[in-house]
Amino acid sequence: MDKVFLVASGKGGTGKTMFAVNLGALLARCGKRVALIDMDLGMRNMDLYLGMENRVVFNIADAMSGMCRLSKALLKVNGFDSLYFMAASPRKDDRQITSKHMSALCDILKKYFDYVIIDCGAGIGQPLEASIPAAQCAIVVTEPEVASLRDADTLVNFLSDHGLRNSYLVVNKIDNELITAGVIPDIQSMINSSATPIAGMIEMDRRIRISTGRGVPIVCTEGTPIEENFRQIAGRILTDQPFPAY
Ligand SMILES: Nc1ncnc2c1ncn2[C@@H]1O[C@H](COP(=O)(O)OP(=O)(O)OP(=O)(O)O)[C@@H](O)[C@H]1O
Ligand SMILES: [Mg+2]
After folding, report:
1. Local structure of residue 82 (DSSP, 8 states)
2. Does domain 4-239 have CATH number 3.40.50.300?
3. Which residue among 14, 17, 18 is best mutated to probe the pocket of ligand 1, counting the most ligand atoms within 8 A of its Cβ?
């Protein structure tokens, strides 16, 4: 079973951190033990989206450089029994985190957690490359525009060339009005034309923006269509049953 998920994107701002936080929160609410790792070094946001910004003292660079014990940098998220999180360093740090560090970190975390979810920055960079060997599955978050979809495709190829061949797309910020107007591709044509399996779609919804701003994952509000979206996406990824193309 895949345990370590890498959340990445071609373009910036597609919703990676929002997705990582909510996938982690959903799995934790289902009783799984989940570790969220912020690898967006120098541009961290995960602490904010989890409402944990005032609790962070040590970060991943501190833990990897031996400045603190791992347990000091791994915080239990407020309001959850089994969701933990490790912050990225707040500014560009010259203590480089290598693939050896990431593999060693994930090997330890896999002993204590059901799932490890690593949130990377946009595009291709050293933190992403360092995280690839530790991961078994990539979730590439894209917006539904052609440019974003093409960059997602480029990233999936890059991951595959670097040994991570199991990738899913999540298409976020779906705007049904733009689909109806023909400005962005409809869902079935996205599924049919994508070389990468699509695990699901998430609609553009201002409640998501409000939830990231408040620091409370949107999946904590039960019964919303967004929570259902996340349930379906998690189910498809964990059972390896993406949307069928036809
Ligand atoms: N489906 C959605 N509907 C509305 N707003 C969304 C949706 N998904 C994400 N957002 C908003 O978009 C913004 C960017 O999201 P987020 O920070 O998760 O993107 P990111 O891909 O992690 O960005 P970066 O590339 O900078 O790391 C946030 O304000 C978030 O609330
Ligand atoms: Mg982010």
Report:
1. S
2. yes
3. 18
Single pTM value for the model: 0.97
Q: Model confidence over 20-77: pLDDT tens digits?
A: 999 999 999 999 999 999 999 999 999 999 999 999 999 999 999 999 999 999 999 9
What lies within 8 Å, CB to CB, of 61 at 6+ separation is 41, 67, 88, 89, 93, 95, 97
Which ligand 1 atom sits nearest the alpha carbon of residue 210? 31
- The pairing of strands 198-203 and 167-174 is parallel
**44 C-alpha to ligand 2 centroid (Å):** 7
Nearest atom in ligand 1 to 20's CA: 18
What is the best residue among 212, 219, 228, 233 to mutate for testing ligand 1's pocket, by most ligand atoms within 8 Å of CB?
212
Q: Which of 225, 151, 149, 160 is nearest to 192 (CA)?
A: 149
